[in-house]
From TrEMBL:
Belongs to the 2Fe2S plant-type ferredoxin family. Keywords: 2Fe-2S, Electron transport, Iron, Iron-sulfur, Metal-binding, Transport. It holds the Pfam family Fer2. Signal peptide: none annotated. The keyword Transport applies. It comes from Pseudanabaena cinerea FACHB-1277. This is 2Fe-2S iron-sulfur cluster binding domain-containing protein. Residues 3-95 form the 2Fe-2S ferredoxin-type domain. PROSITE patterns: 2FE2S_FER_1 (PS00197), 2FE2S_FER_2 (PS51085).
Length: 123
């Protein structure tokens, strides 16, 4: 099945529109049509390809690096997801999803400089 996708690249100040197949990863489908979007791992793990979902439905069952709650809040990793309807997406802020997902853990585990020092053995 073919779906229409609209992506607003907020950093590049561009809007892309394309028709994509529902049985191919969204990022791959767009790349085949010359659309250049951020990515890194291509494996649903790093969040570099994360998008805000303004409208539409995606199949994210292969995604590992995005919690179900963030998926329900309207985020998607397009390297590992498929369109289930027409979509309206926009790029995230730099590290937006990474901070939402992991930032809380780093804040709780604040370290001091001396905690990184390792004891040096002397004979
Ligand atoms: S490129 Fe890493 S999660 Fe999509």
């Amino acid at each position: 099945m073919t779906y229409h996708i609209r992506i607003r690249d907020r950093q590049a100040d561009k809007i892309y529109e394309a028709d994509i197949e529902g049985d191919r990863y969204i990022l791959e489908s767009l790349e085949l049509q010359g659309v250049d979007l951020p990515f890194a791992c291509r494996n649903g793990a790093c969040t570099a390809c994360a998008m805000r979902v303004n409208s539409g439905k995606l199949d994210q069952h292969e995604v590992m690096g995005l919690s179900k709650s963030l998926q329900q809040e309207g985020y998607a990793l397009i390297c590992s997801s498929y369109a289930l309807s027409d979509l309206d997406l926009e790029t995230q802020d730099e590290d937006e999803v990474y901070q939402l997902q992991f930032g809380q853990f780093f804040a709780k585990r604040k370290r001091h400089w001396f905690q990184f020092a390792f004891p040096i053995d002397h004979d």
